[in-house]
User: Which sequence fits this backbone?
């Protein structure tokens, strides 16, 4: 279920005087919608994966497809592939629906080992981003 804009838990309740918020709680991010640059709904943020050694958000887990949670597919999207669109009050991902449908995904009962460096490189390569550990240097 997606958060409604302006309800508790929405990132857009933050008092930022029109600026992008810099610090947000996980509760304000989970449930927010993700759209592509063409305006297609790509699903919502279901969870965030945090690297406990660096404190950096590594991946957003997106939920796409399905109906009331049945048949949905989950995708780990590099956090640095998502952009906050404060004007439209959502996140954007530079990927069309076909790219997301064909992306490496997983079932809610069988999550990949997101700490596996090889798996991470494949995901970052698919979305055209650098591995988050490379952006810390």
Assistant:
């Amino acid at each position: 279920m997606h958060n409604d804009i302006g309800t508790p838990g929405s990132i857009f309740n933050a008092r930022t005087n029109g600026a992008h918020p810099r610090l947000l709680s996980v509760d304000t991010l989970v449930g927010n919608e993700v759209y592509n640059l063409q305006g297609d709904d790509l699903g919502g943020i279901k969870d965030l994966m945090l690297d406990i050694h660096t404190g950096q958000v590594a991946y957003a887990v997106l939920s796409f497809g399905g109906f009331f949670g049945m048949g949905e597919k989950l995708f780990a999207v590099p956090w640095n592939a998502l952009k906050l669109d404060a004007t439209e009050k959502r996140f954007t991902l530079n990927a069309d629906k076909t790219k997301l449908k064909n992306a490496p995904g997983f079932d809610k009962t069988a999550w990949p080992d997101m700490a596996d460096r090889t798996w991470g490189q494949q995901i970052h390569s698919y979305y055209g981003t650098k591995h988050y550990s490379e952006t810390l240097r």
Notes: Confidence is low (pLDDT under 50) at residues 1-9, 14-19. The chain has three helices and six strands.
